Amino acid sequence: MSSTHLHRADLRSGGAYLPGIDGLRAIAVLAVIIFHIEFLGFLPGGFTGVDMFFVISGYVISRSLSERVDWPLATLLLDFYRRRLLRIVPALLVMLLACVLLSAMLVPPVWLSNQNEETGLAAFLGLSNLVLAWQSDTYFSPRAEFNPYLHTWSLGVEEQFYLVFPGVFLLWLRYRERSVAARYLLAALAAASLAVCMIQTRSEPLAAFYLLPGRFWELAAGALLFQLIGQGERAPQRAAVAVLMLGVGLAMVAAGFVLADARQFPFPWALLTVAGTLLLIAGVVHRPYGSGSPLHRLLACSLSTYLGRLSYSLYLWHWPVAVFLRWTVGLESVAVQWIYAPLVLGLAAASYHGVERPLRRGLPSLRQRPGFTVASILGVVGMSTGLGIWVANNTEHLSLSRVADSYTWHAYKHYPREPIEPIEDPALQGRQLFVLGDSHTAAYRTMLNIVSLRLGIEVVEYERGGCAVVSLLAADPPACRAWRDAALADIRARAKPGDVVFLASLRMPELAGRDWQGDEKAVFAQALGEHTAQKAQEARAAADVVLTPLQAAGLTVLIDAPAPVFKAPANRCSDVFNRMNPVCAPGLTVERDRVLQLRAPQMHLLTVLAREYPMLKVWDPLPILCPGATCSVYDTDAQPLFADADHLSGHGNRVLEPSFTQFLIRLYHPL
């Protein structure tokens, strides 16, 4: 049925509740939940349930607007935003405020959570998708698993869609019979969005996934379906067609749940789910008289429709509950998995019956004064955002985690609390220290700050996570080559002969994340086996590329020998509420002999390099960090030397600083 054959009377005559739509919402939210908790790896493409929601939303919003087509424009728009805000905002704010508080109490600011605060505060304003698109992690990255606000990206997309869509759709409702532009504007925008999606999936995958331009077509698809079929008809002759649409649509959606490839998403895999959802909606709308087919009855049964009504609250709560459980006790145990489902269901029911439903259906003043309602909700959003900012700024005071003590745990550039005795030495005047490497360069910030204050030298840092320089393990990462070369060029331009270049990077095989449940000796053997002759040759070549020009420039190069690494991260295993987490089971100690064995190949290469490059010096922090037979993330006073499984803590920096300072003085003195 074309849009020109859809009369205004048809548009306004419907409005009856379609229980099957709630049944579809139930399918969508259950798929997303099963995917997010990785239940038996059952639905590897379950994230496409969000795409189902987009299509359903587009259809339902169109249906709602069509029923008010004769209202004055200002009244219609105010009422639309009143209903949307009441539908989305109150339950969202409750969830966000709970997450902000729980995050402050349970999740300290560490590498895995350092993007959470920014995402959470943006979520109050419906902008979290923009923040996530600008970050470097994908929706499927490990760090995303610890962001309790990650799922709000889809709400941001919908909210931004609502700013554009009503005007476009109202043009179609009122002028489609008189204007070709009004008739086909939405279809043109959807086609343009699909083209953007296709291009961005390859060139800018984060933008394609998180931003409205690459997702508009999915919501618009539901609206275009409404333009095609309207409220639908209950005609006996459509029974077989409706059943066929349901069957084919369900098969397509199920295929998306199982087969969708995150590496090629949204395009082309979202097409499968969007097309399947369109068929499902059409099958529900054109349901036959009476009880209908078994599929119709299943979608319309009381359990399906109740879960569908809960779907928004289920979506809001399922992800943060998983995040907080994953961070604290872990999600791996059967007991926790049994707790997860009723906990999420209980929170969703409380949200729906205690927040969503009363505000949407009660309080006549909220319906009769839409302008006041919109202004009030926006005011509450502003106050809630302010409260969220206050909580975020007072995390150290609210936290129950010892890791929240950033002075002890984090290698930030804290101004030292202890008095710093400056060292007056003419050999140090005008000297510079250039520091280059990966995140382990950043893990020396506290020490470097103290050194700068004590010696009066300028410290210039070049750091990029994942970009090891002279790792001694293998070739330096190719993706970091341009950054590394630019940093080296800048150093050569700024440095004077005799200045020191400190190359600080991870130079040990990581132990965290390995399977420690079996034979420990076999795991260590595997780690040692990763150091092959080929990798040793590549590591040597990478070192030559860096050391040769620095020596030619008359600069002294300082390399830190490999420090201990551990099997579990200290910052996730140091509180009473997370020590039982399975990630902590391997423990926070490692035998010193194992560390020496793991670093033997790197130490051998350092010895070779030091013979060939007279300007190369090696500083070894191992004797200080591990003075006994067992290396521990804690010192004898139970203070953390390491922040996680391999990065130094702030306290560890202060422990190492005297040794590093004296080593630097010896380097500068002969000059």
TrEMBL record:
The keyword Transmembrane applies. The chain crosses the membrane at residues 16-35, 42-65, 85-107, 155-173, 180-201, 241-260, 266-285, 335-352, 372-392. Residues 429-661 form the SGNH domain. It comes from the Bacteria. Pfam families: Acyl_transf_3 (PF01757), SGNH (PF19040). Keywords: Acyltransferase, Membrane, Transferase, Transmembrane, Transmembrane helix. GO terms for molecular function: acyltransferase activity, transferring groups other than amino-acyl groups. Its EC number is 2.3.1.-. Residues 19-348 form the Acyltransferase domain. InterPro entries: Acyl_transf_3_dom, Acyltransferase_3, SGNH. GO terms for biological process: lipopolysaccharide biosynthetic process. The keyword Signal does not apply. This is Acyltransferase family protein. It is an enzyme of class 2 (transferase). One of its GO terms (cellular component) is membrane.
